[in-house]
Amino acid sequence: MNIVLFGPPGCGKGTQSKRLVAERGWVQLSTGDMLRHARAAGTELGRRVAAIMDGGNLVSDAIVIELIEERLPEAKAAGGAIFDGFPRTVAQAQALDQLLLDRGTQVDSVIELKVNDEELVQRLVKRAEEEGRPDDTEDVIRKRLEVYYGQTAPLIPFFAQQGKVKAVDGMGSMDEVAAGIAAALEEK
User: Fold this and answer.
1) E strands, the chain, where?
2) What are the residue numbers of the active site?
């Protein structure tokens, strides 16, 4: 099964992805983690990624799709993938559909985690302090939310036309959100 965890920065995609990996054995394909790893590696690609992320902007489709494509064989072997932070644009969604179709599979479900903006900012500022994430200043967080609503939120209609979107309240405890996701995945 291939699922997309969808929602604004700080809604809990990473936390819930890790939980699904532990419970179901699927592979987490977190573009945020992959991009932070590339950044930390200090390669030419990592330096380009750092400059883009530090400005609160989206990394190019070509870079992100290349990172995802490299991990698809691992996901197939595990029986499924959780796409966390990908796709972020309609072009990326179309590319993902094609990548999966070429491998005889598809996105089975899109879980939209719903959290209000002020809660998102509070969560991200706290995470930045706890984890030392230089890309999570309050100004950059607000810019990331603007980018999300302008460029990524329009994906909801793209996947809704395919009948794949299931909204889950992301404002509860981690366990409550996990229960909401589990219920959504059982829906047909």
Assistant:
1) 2-6, 27-30, 81-84, 109-114, 165-169
2) 13, 88, 127, 133, 144
Residue 117 CA, distance from chain mean position: 17
pLDDT at position 59 is 83
List the domains of the chain with CATH numbers: 2-182 (3.40.50.300)
Please tell me the predicted confidence (pLDDT) of residue 184.
Answer: 97
**What is the DSSP secondary structure assignment for residue 113, as one 8-state letter?**
E
And the tokens for 30?
């977190």
In the chain, % helix, strand, coil (3-state, to 5) comes to 60, 15, 25
Yes or no: say if 157 and 100 are a contact pair by the CB < 8 Å rule: no
DSSP state of 7: -
In angstroms, the CA 2 to CA 105 distance is 8
pTM for this prediction: 0.82
Consult the annotation and say whether 12 binds a ligand: yes
Helix axes 61-78, 90-102, angle to 10 degrees: 40
Is 85 among the annotated ligand-binding positions? yes
99 is in an annotated binding site: no
Pairing of strands 2-6, 109-114: parallel
Tell me the average pLDDT across 104-122.
95
